[in-house]
């Protein structure tokens, strides 16, 4: 009875819509579809990966670095509990800009925020506290390992910069030393992590980092990795400028 | 301040004490601000809450533009010259608190009066079981004195029935007061009756009035030994006093049948009915308005209020409890989610339910992802480099699977090339040492010394039964150091958390031997008990340790995970209480059934409808 009721309706509709009316309806539908596709395409392009993430352990100096890059002034900061994002004009003459996103480094928050922003990452700045590095080397390596084996990040391969912060303090380790220590630690970590008991729903083991036979080296990664020394506080104390030249140059390159 | 309480989802209570200061905070979720007030712990300032609210309002109104337009840049570049306003508000708050002092007395008086009516209500509920006890006495006993008391109590029971029927309608406050006054008078009358009924009892027995248990038979003669006035001469005990009828007790009992424990359940049924009826009228009113409200809620930006969130949170709380999360933890979780979302502005096309669910999901993932990941293999490698064995201690209540999971973990370690010494410190349970010996034999058969360069991968260190566990552990560790074993796994006896001497013994074992890792083994089937177990274990370890920073539980092993399909709430309860990660998950009884926790999968199973 239902089908029978529909048929005369459809026939009536078709009769009404004959001629120019049908054509106009078709054109309208087509226009809507095309607009929709264009909109999706534009949005996809716009939001795809224009972000530079600031990652690192707690107290590495990410929020101060963020403030310095954006405003040039020193600011007293607290432990971040949420992300902050702003657009940063990379250089004076070009008009390119990137979105700087400062993520919290606290252990219970970092992975959550990384999940949210990793797809949009065009580049990652991993901030390391050069003064406390010797005590924290295991935690730094663990976080770096978690960032590097992430599926989305391996796929997109954003450029990675390891910023060795707090160089204004005399006890700060050099970038070369930090690189060597991290390579050694990541070498051990990839063995222990792949040997860990498999996850509950056995979603495959963690991805292999670097080449199997040889010792781990940052050049084995699919992304470009650089090491840079910087100081967000600046050697002249709070009033002076920060030493961020290496960082700024790299940002120009990346944008 | 920010590091401990805010990131961990414990936002139920909004004050935090640190050394000599107390800090109270308030969240503004609309603009993502935190307002903190710090004051000395010894002072009790009554105006703190009001002050923080005033500061919040003023600050928000004054700088609203900067937040809305410029976002993060506004925060960075804007100067917030709030000091004068703050001093003014502080002065106002201090003055107002001083003025309010005399009025405080009055509110206390009012509360006293309201206390009285509450007390009346409580005592009326207590009346009903007492009455029922009297009725039960009638069934078993053959005394006449109690029969006399039963008649008036039955009459008053009859009076109670219409008032109980009255309970089923909605009670206004006046009716409650009226009812209370009636009960009050009735109680006075009953007290007079009660004084009558003990008199016939007193005539029959000299000395103490025997206690009548309402769950057993009330044949007092069986328990009454005051008649036989013997002075220690056993043969003088008269045989003819033994009455076989009395000894057997209730004559109506069928021989050989086990009776159930009878208990009062009628009070609860009445309470439920009252609650249901009060909730029904409110549901009817919501029907029409709900339609437009739903459409309004979908479009446009509106901020979340407590009333919007409460029904959703209730439902989520019940859902969590149904999934085996401990009740108090579910309540606290929902509280903290509510605090986090209050005042937040929702985007278009997001319902309250979806926002709350999203927030709850994030909170759960955050709880399950630990503060510090425990990587056992990495730490064992470190200990290897320092030429000392890595000591792991397993503790837990009885029957959770300590020995089984110890064997699984030693298998995993052997697979990764580390040699293991198992210390049998369970010197109480029969067969514990033999169990571990069998496991050792099996593991050695699976990994013979020939395939590992000639050294035995697993060895058992035991000293039999009945010895001191802490001593055995110490000897095992020094033996391992001498022989060059990489890991020592210490198996302890299962013990209930309430058993103080055993908890002391465990704390002593851990304090004396200073293991590298203390693992608490808990089964996934446990429900609200998990909270109690973990709290008491941690407390015992903290109390009996001599050091400044006591060794507490470092990690959790969740066992019997294959027995629950998706009621995975125990994982949440345990990690919430201790904030320590779940290191291993046991999913069976063979050596390969050892897994690590996947936080997202567990949360997905938990939130699944």
TrEMBL record, chain A:
<feature type="transmembrane region" description="Helical">
    <location>
        <begin position="20"/>
        <end position="39"/>
    </location>
</feature>
<dbReference type="InterPro" id="IPR024156">
    <property type="entry name" value="Small_GTPase_ARF"/>
</dbReference>
<keyword id="KW-0812">Transmembrane</keyword>
<comment type="similarity">
    <text>Belongs to the SRP receptor beta subunit family.</text>
</comment>
<keyword id="KW-0342">GTP-binding</keyword>
<keyword id="KW-1133">Transmembrane helix</keyword>
<dbReference type="InterPro" id="IPR019009">
    <property type="entry name" value="SRP_receptor_beta_su"/>
</dbReference>
<keyword id="KW-0256">Endoplasmic reticulum</keyword>
<dbReference type="InterPro" id="IPR027417">
    <property type="entry name" value="P-loop_NTPase"/>
</dbReference>
<dbReference type="Pfam" id="PF09439">
    <property type="entry name" value="SRPRB"/>
</dbReference>
<protein>
    <recommendedName>
        <fullName>Signal recognition particle receptor subunit beta</fullName>
    </recommendedName>
</protein>
<keyword id="KW-0547">Nucleotide-binding</keyword>
<keyword id="KW-0675">Receptor</keyword>
<dbReference type="GO" id="GO:0005525">
    <property type="term" value="F:GTP binding"/>
</dbReference>
<keyword id="KW-0472">Membrane</keyword>
<dbReference type="GO" id="GO:0005789">
    <property type="term" value="C:endoplasmic reticulum membrane"/>
</dbReference>
TrEMBL record, chain B:
<keyword id="KW-0547">Nucleotide-binding</keyword>
<dbReference type="GO" id="GO:0005525">
    <property type="term" value="F:GTP binding"/>
</dbReference>
<feature type="compositionally biased region" description="Basic and acidic residues">
    <location>
        <begin position="188"/>
        <end position="205"/>
    </location>
</feature>
<dbReference type="GO" id="GO:0006614">
    <property type="term" value="P:SRP-dependent cotranslational protein targeting to membrane"/>
</dbReference>
<dbReference type="InterPro" id="IPR013822">
    <property type="entry name" value="Signal_recog_particl_SRP54_hlx"/>
</dbReference>
<dbReference type="GO" id="GO:0003924">
    <property type="term" value="F:GTPase activity"/>
</dbReference>
<feature type="compositionally biased region" description="Basic and acidic residues">
    <location>
        <begin position="122"/>
        <end position="132"/>
    </location>
</feature>
<dbReference type="InterPro" id="IPR036225">
    <property type="entry name" value="SRP/SRP_N"/>
</dbReference>
<keyword id="KW-0342">GTP-binding</keyword>
<dbReference type="GO" id="GO:0005047">
    <property type="term" value="F:signal recognition particle binding"/>
</dbReference>
<comment type="similarity">
    <text>Belongs to the GTP-binding SRP family.</text>
</comment>
<dbReference type="InterPro" id="IPR011012">
    <property type="entry name" value="Longin-like_dom_sf"/>
</dbReference>
<protein>
    <submittedName>
        <fullName>SRPRA protein</fullName>
    </submittedName>
</protein>
<feature type="domain" description="SRP54-type proteins GTP-binding">
    <location>
        <begin position="581"/>
        <end position="594"/>
    </location>
</feature>
<keyword id="KW-0472">Membrane</keyword>
<feature type="region of interest" description="Disordered">
    <location>
        <begin position="188"/>
        <end position="253"/>
    </location>
</feature>
<dbReference type="InterPro" id="IPR042101">
    <property type="entry name" value="SRP54_N_sf"/>
</dbReference>
<feature type="compositionally biased region" description="Polar residues">
    <location>
        <begin position="216"/>
        <end position="233"/>
    </location>
</feature>
<feature type="region of interest" description="Disordered">
    <location>
        <begin position="265"/>
        <end position="286"/>
    </location>
</feature>
<dbReference type="GO" id="GO:0006886">
    <property type="term" value="P:intracellular protein transport"/>
</dbReference>
<dbReference type="InterPro" id="IPR003593">
    <property type="entry name" value="AAA+_ATPase"/>
</dbReference>
<feature type="region of interest" description="Disordered">
    <location>
        <begin position="122"/>
        <end position="175"/>
    </location>
</feature>
């Amino acid at each position: 009875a239902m089908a029978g009721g529909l048929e005369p309706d459809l026939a009536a509709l078709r009769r009404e819509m004959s001629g120019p009316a049908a054509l106009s309806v078709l054109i309208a539908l087509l226009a809507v579809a095309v607009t929709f596709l264009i909109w999706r395409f534009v949005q996809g392009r716009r939001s795809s990966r224009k972000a530079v993430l600031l990652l690192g352990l707690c107290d590495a100096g990410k929020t101060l670095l963020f403030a310095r890059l954006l405003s040039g002034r020193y600011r007293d900061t607290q432990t971040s509990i949420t992300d902050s994002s702003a657009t940063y004009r990379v250089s004076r003459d070009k008009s390119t800009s990137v979105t700087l996103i400062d993520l919290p480094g606290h252990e219970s928050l970092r992975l959550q925020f990384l999940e949210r922003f990793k797809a949009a990452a065009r580049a990652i700045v991993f901030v390391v506290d050069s003064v406390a590095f010797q005590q924290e080397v295991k935690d730094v390596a663990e976080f770096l390992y978690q960032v590097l084996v992430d599926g989305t990040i391996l796929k997109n391969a954003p450029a990675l910069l390891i910023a060795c912060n707090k160089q204004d303090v005399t006890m700060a380790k050099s970038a070369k030393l930090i690189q060597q220590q991290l390579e050694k630690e990541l070498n051990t970590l990839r063995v222990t992590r792949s040997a860990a008991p498999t996850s509950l729903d056995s979603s495959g083991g963690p991805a292999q980092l670097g080449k199997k036979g040889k010792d781990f080296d940052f050049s084995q990664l699919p992304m470009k990795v650089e090491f840079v020394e910087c100081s967000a506080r600046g050697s002249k104390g709070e009033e002076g400028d920060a030493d961020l030249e290496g960082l700024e140059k790299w940002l120009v390159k990346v944008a | 301040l920010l590091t401990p309480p805010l990131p961990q989802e414990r936002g139920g209570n909004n004050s935090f004490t640190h050394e000599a200061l107390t800090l109270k905070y308030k969240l503004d979720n609309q603009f993502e601000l935190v307002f903190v007030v710090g004051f000395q712990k010894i002072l009790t300032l009554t105006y703190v809450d009001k002050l923080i609210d005033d500061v919040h309002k003023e600050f928000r109104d004054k700088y609203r533009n900067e937040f809305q337009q410029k976002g993060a840049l506004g925060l960075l570049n804007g100067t917030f010259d709030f000091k004068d306003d703050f001093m003014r508000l502080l002065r106002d708050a201090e003055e107002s608190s001083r003025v309010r002092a005399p009025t405080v007395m009055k509110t206390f008086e009012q509360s006293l009066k309201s206390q009285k009516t509450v007390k009346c209500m409580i005592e009326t509920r207590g009346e009903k079981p007492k009455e029922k006890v009297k009725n039960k006495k009638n069934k078993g006993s053959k005394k006449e004195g109690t029969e006399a008391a039963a008649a008036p109590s039955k009459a008053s029971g009859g009076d109670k029935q219409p008032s109980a029927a009255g309970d089923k309608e909605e009670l206004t406050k006046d009716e409650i007061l009226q009812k209370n006054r009636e009960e009050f008078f009735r109680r006075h009358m009953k007290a007079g009756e009660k004084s009558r009924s003990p008199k016939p009892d007193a005539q029959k027995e000299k000395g103490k009035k025997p206690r009548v248990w309402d769950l057993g038979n009330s044949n007092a003669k069986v328990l009454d030994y005051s008649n036989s006035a013997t002075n220690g001469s056993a043969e003088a005990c008269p045989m003819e006093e033994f009455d076989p009828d009395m000894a057997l007790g209730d004559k109506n009992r069928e021989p050989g049948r086990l009776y159930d424990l009878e208990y009062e359940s009628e009070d609860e049924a009445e309470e439920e009915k009252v609650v249901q009826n009060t909730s029904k009228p409110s549901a009817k009113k919501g029907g029409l308005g709900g339609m437009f409200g739903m459409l309004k809620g979908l479009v446009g930006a509106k901020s979340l209020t407590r009333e919007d969130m409460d029904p959703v949170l209730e439902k989520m709380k019940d859902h969590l409890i149904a999934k085996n999360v401990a009740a108090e933890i579910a309540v606290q979780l929902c509280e903290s989610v509510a605090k986090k979302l209050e005042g937040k502005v929702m985007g278009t096309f997001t319902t309250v339910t979806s926002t709350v669910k999203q927030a709850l999901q994030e909170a759960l993932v955050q709880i399950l992802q630990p503060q510090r990941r425990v990587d056992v293999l990495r730490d064992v490698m470190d200990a290897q480099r320092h030429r000392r064995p890595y000591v792991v201690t397993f503790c837990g209540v009885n029957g959770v699977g300590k020995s089984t999971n110890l064997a699984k973990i030693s298998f995993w370690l052997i697979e990764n090339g580390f040699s293991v010494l198992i210390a049998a410190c369970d010197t109480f349970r029969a067969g514990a040492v033999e169990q571990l010996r069998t496991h050792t034999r099996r593991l050695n058969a699976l990994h013979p010394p020939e395939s590992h360069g000639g050294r035995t991968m697993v060895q058992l260190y035991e000293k039999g039964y009945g010895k001191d566990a802490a001593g055995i552990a110490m000897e095992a560790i020094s033996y391992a150091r001498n022989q060059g074993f990489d890991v020592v796994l210490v198996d302890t006896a299962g013990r209930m958390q309430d058993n103080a001497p055993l908890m002391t013994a465990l704390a002593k074992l851990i304090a004396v031997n200073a293991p590298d890792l203390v693992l608490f083994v808990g089964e996934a089937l446990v429900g609200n008990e998990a909270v109690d177990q973990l709290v008491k274990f941690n407390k015992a370890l903290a109390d009996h340790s001599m050091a400044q920073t006591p060794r507490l539980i470092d990690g959790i092993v969740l066992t019997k995970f294959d027995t629950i399909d998706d009621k995975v709430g125990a994982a949440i309860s345990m990690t919430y209480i201790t904030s320590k990660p779940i290191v291993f998950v046991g999913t069976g009884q063979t050596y390969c059934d050892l897994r690590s926790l996947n936080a997202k999968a567990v949360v997905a199973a938990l939130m699944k409808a």
